Structure formats: structure tokens, C-alpha cells
Amino acid sequence: MNINKIKEKLEKLGQPRFRLKQIKKAVYEDGVSDFAEILTLPKELRHQMSKLKILSFEVEKVLVACDKQSTKALVKLHDGKLIETVLISPKPGDWSVCISCQVGCPMNCRFCATGRGGFTRNLTAEEITDQVLFWKQYLRKNFCELKTTNQEPNNIVYMGMGEPFLNWVQVSESLKNLINPELFGFGARSVSVSTAGIPEGISKLAENFPQVNLAISLHFADDKKRSEFMPVNKKYNLEALKKALQEYFQKTNRKVFIEYILLENINDTKNDAEKLAKYLKSIGKLQLLHVNLIRYNTTGEELKPSSRNRVLEFKNFLIKNRIQATIRKSLGKEIRGACGQLIGK
Ligand code: SAH
After folding, report:
1. Catalytic residue (one of 29, 84, 274, 302)
2. Does 84 qualify as catalytic in the annotation?
3. In this structure, is the dihedral angle defined by the CA atoms of residues 95, 97, 98 and 104, taken in order, positive or negative?
4. Cα–Cα distance between 338 and 309 in angstroms, integer?
5. Are 109 and 234 in contact (CB under 8 A)?
């Protein structure tokens, strides 16, 4: 929903200002999915608004994983393009929404399914935040009887399809709306943006949204390997990324999450762990770095996830080197809704 368009419509209809407030409450707080459901509005106005849609897209399909911890929605945009968004509930009352910011992705990382389909277009801020609205409505419809635990999205991650810093204008507009107390009202610290490592974007995030969390998809601490798997490294290598992070720390003094997928015999050996430790130490501010180790979710035949043992060894090595590290549980594999598996099909 584009709140400015709603405002214009109400003005055209000569409605008093408080109608906009009533609509904001109904849509952003209560999660209604249709103007006809907003009973605080007079009947005539509800009728006048009934042609307008709250969501800018249609949801074609919803897939729920067996353990119900993750749910994926296939979204059809107004021009027929498809994207995916995922709702993840690692524990009761905890609802993370993983949103896409582009149709496809231009980054072309070798391990990620999204990039393989190429890049189609940027999403608008409205299309980005509507993914959150959709899950809000979904939770309201499906779990309204369970009032004892939280049934609202409480965490937003830009980790779906696309590279947020290549769509900065729309992404920053969407961030503004997510943390605007008059609209979604999320705490900035409940929102995370993940990047493959674009220095200008890191710098803009620090300047404009210092409280929003930053995650870096590092995956390799060796330039040759990183360039081979992540073409972005040819333009912005590890040294450039280091400088960007040092500046980020200076401006925000906030913790940064380092994402590291473990690929068998590619980046999971003792030597790789040593390189990672060395690189992170060279950035300085080790206490502000936290490594999330992620088991690779298969997206083809070529690459294999590391064994559990390897993942544990890798983690223990980092911990011994005073580097904070956790193994991230990856949910939603059987619905192809885990990190790197979204293709919009
Ligand atoms: N373009 C952004 C955000 C989208 S990807 C970025 O690169 O950060 C979200 C996360 O999923 C990134 O850390 C990405 O590297 C990771 N990812 C991609 N493919 C994956 C796979 N097959 N298995 C596990 N994680 C993957």
C-alpha cells in the first residue's frame, strides 16, 4: 500500500484528516486485508475505497514446511513478474520476515539460485513493504485464536531475492516506512540489511540508518576464491570491504554480522578458518564482529555443504581465536525457501 496515494484519494473525496489515521491503524496495526473490513470508516467511504487494493500484488501460492517453522509465498507483481518472500518462526512467538528487494539479482554469486535466473528489475518501496503487510495479514487470518504468544512479525531481514544496495532509493524508502512509528513502527534494531559487500551502500546505511543491522555476505577470506564465487569481489575486493567496515564502525559503533556459508573442501578447511580469523582481526574492533556460519543449502549438483563435524571445527577455531561465532539454523529447505534458494517459480 502506498500511503501517499491513499492520502490523495481521501483529500479528493473531501474526507477529514482523521480518516487517514483510522486507515493507518487498520492496515499497519490490525492487518486488515480489505478496505471493506475497516469498520471504523463510514459505509459510504468503505464503498468508495473498495476498488483500491491494500496489497500491490497477488499471492499466487503459499507453501508451509512440515515443521511449520517456515512458510514461503510466491508473489505475482502487477506486471506478472514473480518474487518470493519467507516467514520464519525459529521459536514460538518469534516471526521473522525475509523480504526480496529485486526481481532476480544481478550479483551472480555461484552458490545462489536467485542469481542464476539473472536480473529483471528493482522492486518499488511499496512492493518491498507489502511483503511485510502480507505476512501480517496472513498471521492474523491463520493464528488469530492464539493470543497467548506474539502473532505479529517482529523481525525483518532483507535476505530474500536481490541486492539491497543496488536498489538504494527504494530500499531506503522502504526502511523509512518500516521504522516510521506512524506506519509499521518496527524498531530499527529489529531490521537487518544483508549485502554481498558494496562499500557505497554500507556507507549510506551508516549515515541514514545507523540503528538498522548490517550483515555482510563474506563467505571467503581469500580474494582469488571470493572473486571466483562472487563476481562483486572483482570490483570491491576484501581490502575495499575492510575499509568500508572500518568506516562503518567509526560512524555507528554497532555490531556487524558476517555471513559465512560453509562449502565442503572449498572454504571450510583449517586454512580457510585461519584466513578468516586473520582477515577479521585485521579489520580491528573484533568485539563488534559476529560470524554466522551457515550450512550451504544445495542449489545444484556442483557444490556440497560441509559436514556437521567440519562446521563445528570451524566454529571452535574461531571461538578459540576470540571471534564470536554461531551456527545458524537454516529453515525451509524442503519448500526451497532457505537462503539462496529463492527463484520466484
Ligand atoms: N544480496 C544480499 C541479500 C540476499 S542473499 C546478500 O548477498 O547478502 C541472503 C543470504 O543468503 C546471503 O548471505 C547469501 O550469501 C546467502 N546465500 C546465498 N545462497 C545460499 C545458499 N545456497 N545457501 C546458504 N546461504 C546462501
Report:
1. 84
2. yes
3. positive
4. 21
5. no
**Ligand 1 pocket: which of 83, 84, 123, 159 to mutate (most atoms <8 Å of CB)?**
159
C-alpha cell of residue 90: 525459529
The answer to whether residues 163 and 196 touch, using CB atoms and an 8 Å cutoff, is: yes
Beta strands in the chain (DSSP E): 58-64, 70-76, 82-88, 96-98, 102-104, 119-122, 155-158, 191-195, 213-217, 256-262, 289-295, 324-328
Q: What is the DSSP letter of 330?
A: P
Threshold 0.70, pTM exceeds: yes
pLDDT in tens, 125-147: 999 999 999 999 999 998 766 66
Task: Write out the three cell numbers for 73.
Answer: 509465498
**Alpha carbon of 160 to ligand 1 centroid (Å):** 8
Distance CA(278)–CA(321), nearest Å, equals 9
Antiparallel, parallel or unpaired: β 70-76 and 58-64: antiparallel
207-239 in b/e form (b: 16+ CB < 10 A) is: eebeebbbbbbbbbbbeebbbebbbbbeebebe
Residue with cell 520476515: 97
pLDDT tens by residue, 224-270 = 999 999 999 999 999 999 999 999 999 999 999 999 999 999 999 99
Atom of ligand 1 nearest to the CA of 162: 1
Residues 6+ positions from 167 with CB-CB distance below 8 Å: 101, 102, 122, 123
Q: Any idea which residue has 498471521 for its cell? A: 139
**C-beta neighbour count of 34 within 10 angstroms:** 15
- CB under 8 Å to 198, separation ≥6 — which residues? 163, 165, 166, 232, 236
> Which of 69, 76, 124 minimizes the C-alpha distance to 92?
69
